Amino acid sequence: MQLEKHSIGIGDRFARQGVAQLRALEQAAADGIHVVPVWNKSFREHSLVGTVPADVRREAAAAVKALHWQKSFYVDADHISLKNVDGFVESSDFFTLDVADYTGKPADDDALRTFTARHEGLTGDLRLPGLEGTFRLTREALTAAARKYLLAVQEAGRLFRHIAGRKPPERFVTEVSMDETDRPQTPMELLVILAAIADEGIPAQTVAPKFSGRFNKGVDYVGDVAVFAREFEEDLAVIAFAVERFGLPSNLKLSVHSGSDKFSIYEPMRCALRKYGAGLHLKTAGTTWLEEVIGLAEHGGQPLDVARDIYRHAFGRLDELCGPYATVISIRRERLPAPEIVAGWSGSQYAAALRHDPACPAYNPDLRQLVHVGYKIAAEMGARFLDALDTASESIAANVTENLHRRHIVRVFPAA
């Protein structure tokens, strides 16, 4: 199974927007931008909303059937580990191997010595395709990178082999996620990681490194765009080099996690992808849930009441909801409107505050981040929330499609 050049992770908390999401990819294809969908949902999200991995497969298959989609589609077991992967094996054909808990912990001394000896040829000055100048990897830097990342890649290998023992490797796509570390990887550290992935025999088709800056959920990139652009291009060059040097899959590409709504870096990404002819996997899970709430608000009536209540309860349970996402949100509490104020908003006022439109004076990124982590509230509402989705389905679908197509796909992926 070979993942196409351009793909997008389209998570859907409540499994209701598959058709609306896929329609965005149809519209993009009409523009000459060809992207395949990867429906993704993590163990944590399933646990919070009470779904199971098979629900994602059913949603994806139903959307594909409804729109007569003729291209590939995938279902991602997002951020899985050995502790929870078994429940995903049957229904998934894309596995994001999350080994963050092992990053920074050293492998045993024999493994470190063996690895550094095997890859001593990487030390010295290296030229990377498409980049000017040289990159230097000293033996000390090689050892330090191996000490930080080798055990994590070994765990990814164990996880890959566990999955491959239950599903033939030719029937799934493998991603290795290295983004949840304390600092961004340098180009040479990414090269060491890719060397270790090759040693483990992991046929990785995407890799998710950590970049500089903050990738907070549902809002724009926070950091120096020029620094990100340089890192992104350097990582593309490292991947091209590693594919040739280590015999990794020829379609290996970058995966950008928490990639939704990072509008300020989309143009540099698109330029680099065009320059290198490179692929990209962009994960945009939470943005669809936010468009659902916007659609509820714009519909008015009972759906608007549901949207107001989601905010009211999220405001009262802020610490609880933000805890699991502490490293990827940054909420200024003083910027959050009181629930009594939101209770008096019209649907258009609520939507304007929540919709990611930096040019709109009413847009509130702090409110947006709080609602982003508030999907647990909606899940607890049960039938009341799901009925509201049905009532406002037309408004919601229009927002979901427009958001994915115009704000994301068109801005990131180059046309063929």
Short description:
This protein has 416 residues and is α/β, with parallel strands linked by helices. The chain is 51% helix and 11% strand.
Shape: globular
The CATH architecture of the largest domain can be named as Alpha-Beta Barrel
Order of strands in the sheet with most strands: 1-2-3-4-7-8-9-10
The top-level CATH class of the largest domain is Alpha Beta
Helicity, in percent? 40-55%
Q: Element order, helices and strands?
A: EHEHHEEHEEHEHEHEHEHHHHHHHHH
| Superfamily (CATH H level) name of the largest domain | Enolase-like C-terminal domain
Q: How many DSSP-defined strands?
A: 10
Average residue-wise pLDDT: 96
Q: Could you describe the largest sheet, including whether it forms a barrel?
A: 8 strands, parallel, barrel
According to CATH, what is the topology of the largest domain? TIM Barrel
Low-pLDDT ranges:
none
Strand content: 5-15%
Query: In total, how many domains does the architecture comprise?
Result: 2
What class, by secondary structure content? alpha/beta
Please tell me how large the radius of gyration is: 21 Å
Number of helical regions: 17
Distance from first to last alpha carbon:
22 Å
Q: What order do the helices and strands come in, and which of them pair?
A:
Elements: E1 6-9, H1 18-30, E2 36-42, H2 43-49, H3 53-66, E3 74-80, E4 94-98, H4 109-118, E5 124-126, E6 135-137, H5 139-164, E7 173-177, H6 187-199, E8 204-208, H7 225-246, E9 253-256, H8 263-276, E10 280-283, H9 285-299, H10 301-316, H11 318-322, H12 339-343, H13 347-354, H14 365-372, H15 375-381, H16 383-391, H17 393-412
Parallel strand pairs: 1-2, 1-10, 2-3, 3-4, 4-7, 7-8, 8-9, 9-10
Antiparallel strand pairs: 5-6
